[in-house]
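Key idea: predict the complex, not the pieces.
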Amino acid sequence: MNTLQWQIATITKITPETAKVKSFTLSLPGWIKHRAGQHYDLRLTAPDGYRAQRSYSIASAPERTGEIDLTIERVEDGEVSTFLHQVVVPGDRVEVRGPIGGYFVWDATTSGGPVLLVAGGSGVVPMMSMLRHRAAVGAKVPVRLLYSSRTYDDVIYREELASLATGGVEIFHTLTRSQPAGWTGYARRIDDTMLAEVSRPFGASALTFICGPTPLVESAATSLERASLRADRIKTERFGPTGT
Amino acid sequence: MAERFVTRGFGGRPRSAVGLAARIPPGQHLVTDFPVLSAGPTPRIDLATWELALSGLVRAPVKWSWPEFLALPAEEFTKDISCVTTWTKLDTRWRGVSVDTLLEHVELAPNALGLVAECHGGYTTNLLLSDAVNGQAFVAYEYDGKPLPPDHGGPARLVVPHLYFWKSAKWLRALRVVDRDRPGFWESNGYHIRGDPWKEERYSGD
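Result:
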């Protein structure tokens, strides 16, 4: 089994995360330990041979053997994501290959830190793998996550993130569209001031991961460079409008 | 195993039912032949010395010989293509290696932004990485079930079907990873830096 070889995974569990996001647990006959931040390619094949393929970040920790979780947002008119959300049931099988990606990865035991994570929307998925990985190996590396969502109900992994925010992990939410009564987090798009506030305790040497829609990633990366974080320590992953 | 697998319940987007008109970008017309347009003479390339390089802002550049390239995981692509000279051809069938697969062999530098396709004959064209990944671009070596003929860019050409076809550089020899989106050959000659047919990005200033 190599990571570019397609294998048939069985979906063993489907967990709703938000109204538009579900996590799919895939049991893999050719499981290979991934690195937090990597993704799998998933493809669907129609009876006439027509295929549709997308890449999805792994949400689960590498330490979980034999299976992975992919957390997938249903995209408007998304051919694959809509199918996965509306048609697939546990027991169904899909073709996948992976783990893929050697750059946007973090290993709690060797990559060092402190680690600054900046996520927008479902860009939080690879960060979740990193946080779960950190917890699974009992690492002490300080981690700060700045996570932008539209509304409170759109926050993926809300409860688990709250429970992970301990022992050196701090989570900062911003809600860009509406905020519930009594909201104490940020309430605007990620900007220079917000990034400076969240990154300041880590100084210029923080290892930074940014993942989300392209405009968010571009502006956050530029802003952090202006705030004199080292460019070679900033890793980005973009969800383009074609990444549906 | 992958060959016969069918995903339960998956039909995909309607293929035959889609009105043809909806697939033709503004200002384009449908053709059924395959016009040839090149900026210069057609180079004849010896497969014994052919190489594809993936270079530039990567940790360790990679080169594939022809047999090594053919050994990479290949895929079939059926794509609509649009040339800036206003022809559109539907359902062109290709076989090749996706740029994603090529990029799996290198580690991109943090400032990697785009690709320059470098070709035999000196042609170059620029692409943003965001226009090249996620299944959007591939290096083709078969067209319609046969080896890609030289006048259509053989032995191997880049194909970026969602952009005007000058981005689909013929006679590809290298993809160089770069940190800025500098205009290539046509882009320096009055054509649009990106070239999205659905936005009619034909010329610089469009």
